[in-house]
Amino acid sequence: MRVAVVDEREDVLDGRVGWLRAAGHTVVGYSFEAAFEETDWQRFDSVVLDGRDDRERPALMGRGELPDRFLGPRVAQHIRETAGRGRPVIILVSSYARTHPELSLRCQEAGVDYAFDYLDVPSSAHFVRAVESPRDMAPREPVDWRAVGFVAPPRIGDALAAAESSRATPPLVSAGAPAADVSPYERRSLRESLGRLLPVALFRTGERRRLAHEKELRPLLRRLLGLRATDDPHGGSDG
Fold first, then answer.
1. Comparing C-alpha atoms, which of 232, 224, 231 is closest to residue 103?
2. By CB neighbour count within 10 A (0-12 exposed, 13-18 middle, 19+ buried), where does 18 fall?
3. Nearest-CA neighbor of 102 among 225, 187, 3, 16?
4. Which of 66, 104, 57, 59 lies closest to 190, judged by CA?
5. pLDDT digit string, tens, across residues 108-139
6. Which residue among 63, 94, 133, 196 is the one 20 to 30 A from 164 at the CA level?
7. Structure pTM?
8. Residue from 102, 8, 99 nearest 53 by CA
9. What is the pLDDT of residues 57-76, one digit of tens each?
10. Is cis: bond before 58, omega within 30 of 0?
C-alpha cells in the first residue's frame, strides 16, 4: 500500500511512518503545513491523520484569524477537494476522537472514512491493522448531531468559512473588544450566518425566534475549533 501519514509531532510521525514501513508499505510523512500544500493525493491508497494540533498556539485561519486546533478535518477536506471521494481512504487516529464529539462531527462532514481513538490502537500492531483493514477494526458509530445540541444538521464547514472571512470573528471567539473599524452590522451579520449554519437549541417551547447572542455562539464555536470554553485562544492554555 501507498500510505501518507500526517502529524504535527515529529516523534509520533516518525513512529507511525516506521511501523508502516516495517510492515512493507510505501510511506510518506507530512506535517500539517506540508499536507495543505500537497495536491497529488490520488497517488496514495490511504492517508492517516492526526486530529488535533497541540502545538503552543493554534493555527490562525483566514481574514478573521480564526484559531483552530482541529486541523485533521481541514486536511481531510483539502484531500477531498483535490482527489475526490473514494481514494484515498482517510483514517483519523486521535486521542480526542472519544472526548470531542465536535471533532467527530467535523470529520464526518469533511470526508473522513474511519476515526479511531488511541485506545483503539494501543500498539504498533493494532495501528498497522487499523490502516490495512480499518473496516475490520469496527470503528465507532457516527456521532448523533442532536446529542451535541443541534436541532438540525449543522453545516460546520460553511460556518467556519464564514467565520474565517469576517473581521468580526476575533471578539466572537475570544470575548474581547472588537477592532475600531468593525461595524455593528458586521458583527450582526456574522451572528446571523452562524446562527443559520449552526442551528442550536436556544429557545424554550413557544418562545419567539430571535438572533443568537454572541455569548451563546461563543462556546459552541470554540468547541468546534478544539478550544477550551473560556481560555484565550491566542494563549498556550488550549493544549
1. 224
2. middle
3. 225
4. 66
5. 899 999 999 888 899 999 999 999 999 888 66
6. 94
7. 0.86
8. 8
9. 999 999 888 999 999 999 99
10. no
